[in-house]
Specification:
Layout: H1 3-28, H2 31-51, H3 62-92, H4 94-99, H5 105-133, H6 142-169, H7 173-178, H8 180-185, H9 201-208, H10 211-223, H11 231-258
Helix pairs in contact: 1-5, 2-3, 2-5, 3-5, 3-6, 3-10, 5-6, 6-10, 6-11, 10-11
Organism: Nocardioides terrae
Family: Belongs to the ABC-2 integral membrane protein family.
Membrane topology: Multi-pass membrane protein
Length: 259
């Protein structure tokens, strides 16, 4: 076995061990996942049962129209906890403690990222189950559902690496939690709640050229068994581009803070 492959194997093993540690903490305190799901579920209930009748989306089933945007709001809400957990580990000296141990340095960061993806997918599952209880139905086949899960997971991964940056650099709890607010409200200026065609010119231009709209439209088309067209490529380009930039900045920040 070469030195590089051995190092890769050790890094993966260290990451698995630390992921188990993080997931154990979440299982002992499941309120994180529950809290993450509560706000999107409450929002879905509000828009479907209070505002849904007044919103013209061209669809008789507003919960099905709304669900893709709610899923993204769930993820945006959930990654704030990743930033918070990183911040608390930084303040508690956990990173310095792990640094003195014979483990791959990057595995500590990757453990938080993988834990975030797992926890957010659980929260998304809870939201989908509630939507089913509210009347959401989809005839999508298995491949379409796999595609939806893949897009949501990729979006989660990109936002999680973005959350790593404030988690490592914030000076206070308020600072680390506040960064996610713009991400949570971004779907409101997109096609998540109403078609962009109903918006004023400048707002419509922004809504049609920001990442949430293409991701929401792709997921909605997959659920509805419709052709996704170019939306899926635009959505993937946004996710991969954001992931690459966020990963690069996060790793540079990590090396600077832990060096």
């Amino acid at each position: 076995m070469t030195r590089s492959s051995s190092g890769l194997g050790n890094g993966l093993g260290d990451t698995v061990v630390l992921v188990r540690r993080s997931l154990t903490h979440i299982l002992r305190s499941p309120d994180t996942i529950i809290t993450t799901a509560i706000t999107p579920v409450a929002m879905m209930l509000l828009f479907v049962y209070v505002f849904g009748g007044a919103l013209d989306t061209g669809s008789d089933d507003y919960v099905s129209y709304l669900l893709p945007g709610i899923l993204l709001i769930t993820v945006a809400s959930g990654i704030s906890y990743t930033a918070y957990r990183l911040f608390m580990d930084m303040q508690g000296g956990i990173f310095e403690r792990f640094q003195s141990m014979p483990i791959a340095r990057s595995s500590v960061l990757w453990a938080h990222v993988v834990t975030s993806v797992v926890a957010n997918l659980v929260s998304v599952t809870i939201v989908v189950l509630v939507a089913l209880g509210m009347g959401f139905r989809s005839g999508a086949d298995v491949l379409a559902w796999i595609a939806v899960v893949g897009i949501v997971a990729l979006f989660t991964l990109a936002l999680t690496w973005l959350a790593v940056i404030p988690g490592l650099t914030a000076k206070s709890v308020d600072g680390v939690s506040g960064f996610s607010y713009p991400l949570i409200f971004l779907p409101f200026v997109s096609s998540a709640f109403v078609p962009t065609g109903s918006m004023p010119g400048p707002v419509r231009a922004f809504a049609e050229h920001q990442p949430v709209t293409s991701i929401v439209d792709t997921i909605r088309s997959l659920f509805a068994e419709q052709a996704v067209g170019t939306d899926v490529w635009v959505a993937l380009a946004w996710c991969v581009g954001l992931l690459a930039v966020a990963y690069g900045l996060a790793m540079a920040t990590y090396r600077r803070r832990i060096s």
